[in-house]
Amino acid sequence: MLQKFGFTQYESQVFEVLSASHQPMDASTIVRYSQVPKSKVYEVLNRMVEKGIILSSFTERKKLYNAVPLEAIIENLTDEFQANVEDLRNKEYTHRPVDDRVWTVKNSRTITSLTKELAENAKSSICLSGWSDHLKAFTPLLKQKKDEGVTVEILSVGELENSLPNTHVLIPNEGHDALERYQLLIVDEKEILFAGIEQGDWQGIQTLSRSLVKFFTEFFYHDVALTEITKKYEDTLMEDESIKQILMKLRY
Q1: Top-tier CATH class for 2-90
Q2: Which of the four, 32, 87, 116, 127, has the lowest number of CB atoms within 10 Å?
Q3: Are 164 and 152 in contact (CB under 8 A)?
């Protein structure tokens, strides 16, 4: 019966048994008449007490249960239904468009300015990678954001003097022919600015696209992992010529 109003089958079976009885019942008796498994009956009874459709009481070391009068339950269900209808009627639905557009950015000064602006507005996290001589201009701002509680992680190509704890440093090997100048900024795991040098000029992209943010975030931590692994096991890795050739082809 109660299943039509969102209650479970076991709750409905227990309520029907208690409603049909002229006397309060204990859990064992309820199990006998309701066919609710003994392993489930206390869970069901406690849930029904919380919902306010049955009453409970201790008498002579036994816990007894009784059904709330049907008319009271009907009144409660009616009031709840009307309240839900009002909530639905008054709810304002808004559409939040997802900005998947990719913006092209050119000019090194513009890229630097955008990097600072995005970093300044970061609320939770900043991931920044690039070459050390380019990154050092941002270290004061990054320290400030860290002091504000923002998580900051840096991957620097070349030594970078700073006191930030999560700084990973890749020292280029002379065989790193594929290593190119670039910068990657990820802010709050929802926006990226990626830039590199094409035909002698800096240019890049800025986007909130979820798929691209996810891709570049994985790209960042891929680089971090390779940097730390190479640093720790460099001698062993470089002794293997095939592995060395693969590592030298990576752009990082």
Answers
A1: mainly alpha
A2: 87
A3: yes
Whole-model pTM: value is 0.58
Supply 25's token pair. 């019942």
Instruction: Give residue-wise pLDDT tens across range 17-74.
Output: 998 888 899 999 999 999 999 999 999 999 999 988 899 998 777 899 999 988 888 8
CA distances from 95 to 92, 98 (A): 10, 9
Q: What are phi and psi of 183, to 5 degrees?
A: -145, 135
Per-position b or e across 58-93, b if 16+ CB within 10 A of its CB: eeeeeebbebbeeeebeeeeeeeeeeeeeeeeeeee
Name the band, by pLDDT with cuts 50, 70 and 90, for residue 160: confident
Tokens 């468009």 sit at which residue? 97
Give the span between the Cα atoms of 114 and 217, in whole angstroms. 19
Compute the mean pLDDT over every residue in the chain, rounded to the nearest whole number.
86
User: What is the second-level CATH architecture of the domain 102-249?
Assistant: 2-Layer Sandwich (3.30)
Distance CA 45, CA 27 (A): 8
